[in-house]
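seq as requested:
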Amino acid sequence: MDKPLSTRAEIYAVYVKSTRTNTITTLTRPNGNPVRTLTGGNLGFKGGNRSSYEAGYKCAVEIFKALEEEMKKTTEPKWQLYLNGFGQGREAIQKALMATEGQVVKPNLIRVTDKTPIKIGGTRAQKRKRR
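struct tokens:
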């Protein structure tokens, strides 16, 4: 009975919500508790710059650093990436993962999931705002 009860690897999760106005990234532990949440505003970008490509890239780099620190605590760390939305931060996260900043965490990535809700049919949308 020296074996552990569960042989599953601990799976961390990185959630990326990329909207027209901001990019929000959250790193969670395997039990679902958040470790770190970063937004474009947290990193010093204000106004329309929060949703820019640079803000998304910087969020990705900081989350990868936090993920690297968390993965040092476990023996077999794995992680999943969940994408939501079609903002500029979405592509920035993907490019950062392929760049040198993501080379440390990329080998442990097991799944990339797109959780963006896509409306098919449904009820009639609200009237657009006039600007």
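Strands lie at 11-18, 23-28, 34-39, 78-84, 109-114.
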